[in-house]
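quick one if you have a minute, typing this from the bus. theres a chain ive been looking at and ive put its sequence and its fold in token form underneath. please have a look and point out which stretches look like helix strand or loop to you. anything you notice is useful, everything is just below.

***
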Amino acid sequence: MRRREFIALLGSACPIAARAQQGERLRRIGWLDPAPETDGSVQVRKTFVQQSLQRMGWSVGRNLAIDYRWGIFDLERARRAGAELVSLSPDVLLCAASPAVQALQEITRTVPIVFVAVAEPVAQGFVQSLAHPGGNTTGFSYLEPTVGAKWLQLLLEIAPRVKRVAYVFNPNASPYAPLFYESIEDAGGKLSVETIMAPAEQPAELDPIVAGLGTEGGVIFNADAFVLTNRGPAIDLAARYRVPAIYGIPTTAAEGGLVYYRLDFLDLYGQAVAYVDRILKGEKPAGLPVQQPTKFNFGINLKTAKALGLTVPHKLLVSADEVIE
């Protein structure tokens, strides 16, 4: 066979799509996530994001690469991981929680940043305003501070005997927590419930907080990365000391927690992916308004309620997104 004919034959054997890929520029996303890679929610989130991107024309290995950094729930970790990701020349950075946004903004003011789960982004100085974020950063805000009152209300509806409630949070993972506590404290005053601000920087600090609440105690575990990472010990402590608890983490009811209430995280990431797509196609973060949460999830574990001697009101059962028998 002649050389020219052989080359032509090879060319005809290659799929057209494969030849087109060679001229397609690879785009890169850097992703900072507060959950450890071993967390059960991580694979669900990764798959969801990749499938959402694929529906928009972005396929990992074809025209897209994603670099991940997991377990980024405090500022120092975020600074180290953020510097690593920026050194890889990403086209856009996707991140969750306040420490990640702060660190990335310290590192770059040019690479577009799309955040999720950031409370009060204007008050924290991450964006100029919700409608006009300015700069290189936009995204999807987290729970509003008034959710603190909602947590307390739900806890008392399920456990009316509670007269003392501790609000547990990590100050490094959730610098916005005092705003939430103001809402809890205000609601507690109206409901004749004592509220306690209970910061915890290490898992070992959770035991004395829960143990000290007594028979009329209850706990609100904040929706932050520290609670996400340590939700197992938190659930175990609440069971050991027979303390009714509400969590800002959605998997907790299935894992033995009494009740959770928080925004729908996958819905939030679905919206964030749409922003990532628009940025990859040429839009600027400054022109994409920061969106506030609209979809929430609420779950109850009836087995845990029974173990605590609690009867869940029917109106809560019918309104719950998830009921664990």
